[in-house]
């Protein structure tokens, strides 16, 4: 059962963004980054109240992803990334990123907080942050 509404173009967009943001961290890294992306479409809180589809999530500005804002969102979606994107849309969650709404790749160790949100884990070079429950309880809901 899909946790967000998508069509084939959405899958391609999600796959492209996962590749652009985390290809260097392998499949698990792309899946964890993808958890954040799907979560942003699922919730209606904080910076994501009006992010109700994949396209809006991909191109959100301000507050969106560096890949689309800094010009490295240009590679096409390959079958590998589309397969991973479909797993996420079907509700698969991965590790400490399962409820996260943010990630970034710092040049130093992960800060314990990022814009007031607590660090919940790190995978390779990316740090993952989830909202405080009281600020966005729906982020912690089950599918």
Q: Compute the gyration radius: what is it?
A: 14 Å
Q: Overall pLDDT, averaged?
A: 95
Order of helices and strands: HHHHHEEEE
Say how many strands there are: 4
What characterizes the major β-sheet?
4 strands, antiparallel
The largest beta-sheet arranges its strands as 1-4-3-2
Give the termini distance in whole angstroms. 9 Å
In what range is the share of β-strand residues? Answer: 5-15%
- Low-confidence blocks of residues: none
Coarse morphology: globular
Task: Briefly note the structural class of the backbone.
Answer: alpha+beta
Helix content: 25-40%
What count of helical segments does DSSP give? 5
Walk me through the structure.
- There is one protein chain.
- The model has no long low-confidence stretch (mean pLDDT about 95).
- This protein is an alpha+beta fold.
- It is built from five helices and four strands, in the order H-H-H-H-H-E-E-E-E.
- The chain has helices spanning about 10-20, 25-40, 55-60, 65-70, 80-90; strands at about 100-105, 115, 115-125, 125-130.
Secondary structure topology:
Elements: H1 8-22, H2 26-42, H3 54-58, H4 66-69, H5 79-89, E1 102-104, E2 113-114, E3 117-123, E4 126-129
Antiparallel strand pairs: 1-4, 2-3, 3-4
């Amino acid at each position: 059962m899909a946790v967000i509404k998508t069509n084939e173009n959405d899958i391609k967009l999600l796959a492209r963004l996962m590749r652009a943001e985390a290809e260097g961290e392998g499949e698990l890294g792309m899946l964890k980054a993808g958890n954040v992306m799907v979560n942003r479409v699922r919730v209606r809180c904080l910076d994501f109240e009006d992010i109700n589809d994949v396209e809006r999530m991909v191109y959100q500005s301000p507050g969106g992803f560096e890949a689309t804002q800094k010009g490295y969102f240009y590679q096409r979606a390959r079958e590998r990334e589309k397969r991973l994107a479909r797993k996420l849309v079907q509700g698969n969650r991965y590790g400490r990123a399962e409820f996260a709404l943010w990630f970034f790749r710092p040049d130093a160790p992960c800060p314990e907080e990022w814009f007031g949100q607590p660090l919940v884990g790190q995978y390779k070079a990316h740090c993952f942050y989830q909202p405080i429950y009281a600020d966005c309880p729906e982020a912690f809901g089950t599918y």
